[in-house]
Amino acid sequence: MTKWTTAWLDEDDGDDDEKGRQPDMPMTAGPVQNALFRSRTVLVFGEIDMRLAERVTAQLTALAAESDDPIRVIINSPGGHVESGDTIHDMIRFCGPTVKVIGTGWVASAGAHIFLGAKKENRLCLPNTRFLLHQPAGGMRGQASDIQIEAEQIIKMRDRVNRMIAAETGQTIERVVKDTQRNFWMNAEEAKAYGLVSRIITDTSEV
Questions:
Q1: Which of 77, 89, 109, 113 is catalytic?
Q2: Distance of alpha carbon 131 from alpha carbon 106, whole angstroms
Q3: Among 67, 5, 74, CA closest to 41
């Protein structure tokens, strides 16, 4: 886990021993990580997996312990592991401080699920962000009985995610079920009209 409270590393030339750490100590946070911590910003970039979920949970927990000031979460993700997305989604609501999410690039699948962890008024995006909603899927292998059990779980997962999308966007569950039958892409303006996004921003002062 990154040590968020450590001082910046000395960037002078020299051996590692002379850069503020002992040979047997793990690498501490550098200037970028420290700057992100001070600005109370968490990055969710790339595929959603358990390692990312652990890192984001650690950062949200550390920032919440530091103060009750709002936290910014910037998301650019193609999606990934549903349960890892569930963890980050739930931690956004659980950690305590207000969390403002900012979409950029693309916010897809499990990434969109994380985005919806913030309250609607705190869901923002940059102008060129694209959003993708679709049904969660799973790779089913093994005995017929195991495949049946997994298929039942996927159906339950789809229903849960669809109901969450409906509740957070104001769309009817029937509309969401229809939209997520196939890949449902939206640009920033369309996502705002759909209820995913509250505001499209162009400058940090608008956060």
A1: 109
A2: 6
A3: 74
Name the active-site residue from 113, 134, 145, 205: 134
Structural domains in the chain, sorted by start: 27-138+182-199 (3.90.226.10)
Q: Cα–Cα distance between 96 and 63 in angstroms, integer? A: 10
Give the DSSP letter string of 18-82: GTTS-TTSPP---HHHHHHHHTTEEEEES-B-HHHHHHHHHHHHHHHHH-SS-EEEEEEE--B-H
C-alpha 199/C-alpha 3 separation (Å) is 33
- CA angle centred on 8, ends 20 and 53, rounded to 5°: 110
Q: Does residue 109 carry a catalytic annotation?
A: yes
Q: Are 76 and 45 in contact (CB under 8 A)?
A: yes
Q: Is 113 one of the annotated active-site residues of the chain?
A: no
- What is the model's pLDDT at position 51? 97
Maximum pairwise Cα distance, the chain: 63
CA distance 182 to 164: 18
DSSP 120: G
Question: CB–CB of 77/47 below 8 Å?
Answer: yes
pLDDT in tens, 83-132: 999 999 999 999 999 999 999 999 999 999 999 999 999 999 999 999 99
Closest C-alpha to 38, from 8, 9, 58: 8
pLDDT of residue 143: 59
Return the structure tokens found at 81.
């592991």
User: What are the beta bridge partners of residue 72?
Assistant: 41, 100
Paired with 99 in beta bridges are 71
